């Protein structure tokens, strides 16, 4: 009688196990990579939306408390004379400088060059007609259209706000 040693695996069985394992690990890796990419897109979208919210809040709150507003001829700059909570006045300005939306405030008219101004958001483009970021509507209302982009994800910001404060005098902002 011939004895057979059935313990262990044949080469064919080993190759099948390795192929099935590789297929399973490949699918698992694909799911993992897809999850990471989706998370990166969601994070970029959240950053863009957050920056758009900061811009909208800054402009909206300020212009609502303004006694006067002015938009530059190109529509890239917005100036506002703000009535502060203390009853005084403050000059505030926003400018789209390349792809950065910059902001400045103070008790005197804001400088014509925004190089030292605070960047509220980067990756910003204007979306109003003629490539404008801001447009004056009448004498007291401003509309603004901006797109904030972060890593390919966009947050579109289109809004309008009207100056509602009334008080004479104060500083000359523009």
UniProtKB/TrEMBL annotation:
Q: Which UniProt keywords apply?
A: Membrane, Transmembrane, Transmembrane helix
Q: Where are the transmembrane segments?
A: 12-33
Report the Pfam families cross-referenced here.
N_methyl
Q: What is this protein called?
A: Prepilin-type N-terminal cleavage/methylation domain-containing protein
> Organism classification, top ranks?
Bacteria, Bacillati, Actinomycetota, Actinomycetes, Micrococcales
């Amino acid at each position: 009688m011939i004895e057979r040693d059935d313990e262990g695996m044949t080469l064919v069985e080993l190759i099948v196990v390795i192929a099935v394992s590789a297929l399973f690990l490949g699918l698992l890796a694909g799911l993992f990579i897809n999850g990471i990419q989706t998370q990166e897109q969601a994070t970029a979208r959240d950053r863009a939306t957050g920056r758009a919210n900061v811009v909208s809040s800054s402009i909206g709150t300020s212009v609502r408390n303004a006694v006067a507003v002015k938009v530059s001829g190109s529509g890239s700059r917005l100036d506002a004379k703000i009535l502060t909570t203390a009853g005084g006045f403050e000059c505030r300005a926003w400018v789209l400088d390349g792809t950065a939306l910059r902001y400045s405030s103070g008790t005197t008219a804001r400088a014509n060059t925004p190089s030292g101004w605070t960047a509220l958001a980067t990756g910003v483009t204007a979306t109003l007609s003629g490539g404008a970021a801001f447009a004056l509507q009448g004498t007291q209302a401003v509309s603004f259209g901006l797109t904030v982009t972060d890593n390919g994800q966009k947050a579109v910001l289109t809004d309008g706000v009207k100056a509602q404060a009334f008080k004479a005098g104060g500083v000359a902002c523009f």
